[in-house]
Prior knowledge:
It contains 13 helices and 13 strands.
Amino acid sequence: MTSILHPLRIGKHIVQYPIVQGAMAVGVSGAKLAGAVANAGGVGVIASLGLGLHSPDFHQRKRNSFFAANRLALIDELTKARNISPDGVMAVNILVATKDYPVLAQTAAAQGANLIITGAGVPVCLPEYTADYPDVALVPSVSNLFSAQLICQTWQRQYNRLPDALIVENCQQVGGHFSQCEDVNSPGFSIESVIFQLRQYCEEQLGVKIPLIVAGGIGDRTDIDKMLAIGADGVQIGTRFITTEECDAHRRYKDYHLQASAADIVTVPSPVGKPSRALRNSFAEQAMTHSSTTLERRCIANCLETCLCRDTGKTYCLLQALSKAALGDVEHGLIFSGANVGYTDRIMSVTELMAELTQPQKSMQSNIVVQRKNPLQIN
């Protein structure tokens, strides 16, 4: 029998189901998707990366106009999401590696985000940026015990507070950028071991129970139950929400995910200096082989603190690559994806998907596509 999914408290906010929608950029998880997920009882998440890229406020020849456009676009997106879900739990995902991370954190807090989730870096100063908004829950993403210890110790010492929850990334499965996995088969590196270590650290050394939310490779109720059984308090699901009606990406982007199989998952180098998990297409092939001069190597926004494209002329412009794909150019853009695909063969509403994820396991078997059971070979 599948257990009942209980509500999850994150800081001062209670979400009906322990399901956090993944942040997918550029333009994949915006107001429509986040609002729908929040309405359905999960945590809706707006991805802040590149929101201002196609805004009329962004003028490539004007210094810092991208950051101003990003801030205004985030305000607009939060307003739209709140119109869709006035009472739902809403989060904004912000990358620490972006230059406007402090401004976006302050803006998200001021504009009514319930949670701020961070990725791509250690957010040692995040409590400083949100100090005027104590009700905003702060949720860093970590991949191991060391990162969590660094955040908790720094926040305790400098701000007398701890994270309200932790997103725990499973580097074997998570979509987009992930930590290196050289030691993935070593004892203590599995997601089960990391959850155990984090739980032990929080309860025995910190004396608190910080909610642990696992991200990576989760797409159905079986996966959710497995993560809860190993000690997680909730899950973050990204790729599965792409194939929904409300996902903000172009229909061709959604269809590309529908058609994907395990053999299509590849590892692509990225301008941020970390590997990224994506679907195979013409762009990915060129990026992996470094054999093409057609990739966009012109930095258009100076958005990252460290960028191989801007600083060395290598790889490609991340914003352009992600945006192209989300706008429907599925051959010449970068299509991030989690390691598990093939959970469904059709586009469905967020309401229907959330019902499927929260129903007892037995009632969902007919919806699971057999191909996802094949072992994944990550290239």
